[in-house]
Specification:
With about 240 residues, this protein is α/β, with parallel strands linked by helices. The protein contains seven helices and 13 strands. The protein has one domain: Purple Acid Phosphatase, chain A, domain 2. Helix 1 packs parallel to helix 2. The mean pLDDT is about 90.
Length: about 240
């Protein structure tokens, strides 16, 4: 089994470097990967109604559906910039996880989440997150003209980014502590995004090796996690 985990592409414009590099990367994995896990903040910002999506996202959504047709299992995790993903991607057989998932890769039990809820002391953000996923907000955005909705999306994106204005190292420390708790719950690996800082660490807990990983991003690092032959490795894509 061969799987890839990546997060935090924050796609906006098709002609951006990160966007084009990601399209090329997806072309390179056709026929060689069984599963692709996109762990949140892939789009910046995602909204959809009646099958109509932001035009700049058309190339990427088409590429994802093409990968699905080629036999790659695609798993989408919602982040703090993209949600309500199931409405568009669900009918195509793409798995969407609003929060987190416990997955099994061969004999490994893995906890996967975008990671934006790890800091439980950030009450203001958690309340904003709950509102952005509420039925009230969902119904309201459905009634807005598309042009206004895109403008609101840009503003919402800036507000959401304030959650990362602190030290990435500080957030990584909180994620490390969170991972240790999950290791105690029996998970062999914890994979998170959100921090934009690529990290991979090995820990031995009760005589068994555990892996803690933060995926980095596709803005500065072009980093992803590769699972192959029972091993997890942090890799950087070279355009």
């Amino acid at each position: 089994m061969k799987a890839i985990f990546l997060s935090d592409a924050h796609l906006k414009y098709e002609n951006s470097t990160g966007y084009r590099n990601l399209l090329n990367f997806f072309d390179s994995i056709k026929g060689s990967v069984s599963d692709l896990f996109i762990v949140g903040d892939f789009f910046d910002f995602w909204f959809c109604r009646n099958g109509y999506i932001y035009p700049e996202f058309q190339a990427m959504t088409s590429r994802l559906l093409e990968l699905k047709e080629k036999g790659i299992n695609i798993h989408l995790f919602e982040g703090n910039h993209d949600f309500f993903l199931d409405e568009f991607f669900g009918p195509y057989g793409i798995h969407v996880f609003p929060d987190w998932a416990a997955i099994n890769l061969d004999d490994k039990r893995i906890f996967v989440s975008h990671g934006d809820t790890v800091d439980t002391k950030n009450i203001s953000y958690l309340l904003l997150r709950r509102f952005m996923r509420s039925k009230i907000f969902y119904g309201t955005q459905k009634k807005l003209p598309a042009s206004i909705l895109w403008k609101i999306a840009r503003i919402s994106s800036k507000i959401s980014k304030t959650h990362l204005q602190g030290s990435p190292e500080g957030l990584a420390d909180k994620m490390r502590i969170f991972s240790m708790e999950k290791f105690s719950d029996g998970f062999d690996a914890v994979i998170l995004g959100h921090c934009h800082q690529p990290v991979i660490e090995r820990h031995v807990v009760d005589g068994r090796e555990k892996t803690f990983a933060i995926l980095g991003d596709w803005i500065n690092h072009y980093s992803y996690l590769l699972y192959e032959n029972g091993d997890l490795a942090l890799v950087s894509y070279k355009p």
